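As a warm-up, study this chain.
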Amino acid sequence: MATLIHLDRADDERLGDYVGLREATLRRLLETERGVFIAEGSKVIRRAIEAGYPPRSFLLAERWLADLADLLDGLDVPVYVTTEEVAEAVTGFHVHRGALASLYRAERFTIADVLAGRRVMVLQDLVDHTNVGAVIRNAAGLGWDGVLVSARCADPLYRRSIKVSMGTVFALPWARLPEHVDLAGVLHSAGFTVAALALRPDAVELADFAAGLAKEARVAVLLGTEGHGLSAGWTDAADAVVRIPMKSGVDSLNVAAASAIAGYALG
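Now compare it with the structure written out below.
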C-alpha cells in the first residue's frame, strides 16, 4: 500500500511538484527539470497509470482516498493527504476533482510508430494547451491513428491538455517532431497524401478533396497556429491545400473544431 502522509501546510517542500499549476511558464521549467507531469482527477490518473506512466506521488483530499484505494494498493509512492484549502494554496486553483498525481514522463511512441497508421494529424506550433488536448481527443474519438506535434507546439502532457483530452493522450500514439524537420520528406517517404488546412486562393473544398482520395490512401492533415495558421513552408509541403466552406462572413474555425470536421470527413 502506498504511504499516506497527512500535510497541513502549503509550503511543505514535499508538495513541490504541485506548485503553481496554472502558471504555464513555471510548470514547463519545473516539469522538464524533474521529468514529470501532472494528472488531475481519478479517471485521468487511472488512465495514465494503466498506460504505463510510473507515479511519483499523489496529492489527494481525504474524500478521494476510498475512490483510489484499489489503485494505491501495491504502489510504493507517497500519497500526500490534505484539505482542499491547502491544495488550492499549493496549486493556485480550486482542485474540483480533489485528486492530483505527479507521474514520470516517458516517450512511449516514436515518429515511426505514429506514421505506421493510415490517418495522422500534424500540429504546427499550437500555443493553447486546450486546443492541443481537444485535437488529440478528436483524433482518438474519430478513429485516427496518431498525432505529430511540432518542436514548438504546446505540451500534450501539460495538465490542461491532459484534462481536455479526457486522458486520450495516454492511449493515442503521439510524438514530437524535431526542429527544422523536412516535413514533406518525413510524410511522403511514409506514403502519406498530405492535406494542409489553410486559407489560400487555390484551396479546394474539404468534401472535394475527400471525394478524390483513393480508398487505400494514407492521409496526414496539417493544422496550424491559432493566430496565423500554417507557415508557408508547411503549406508548401502539402499535396493539397484544403478549406472548410464558411458562411456569414466568418473565414475560419477554431483549430480544434476544424480538426474534428476534417477528421470526420477524411476518417
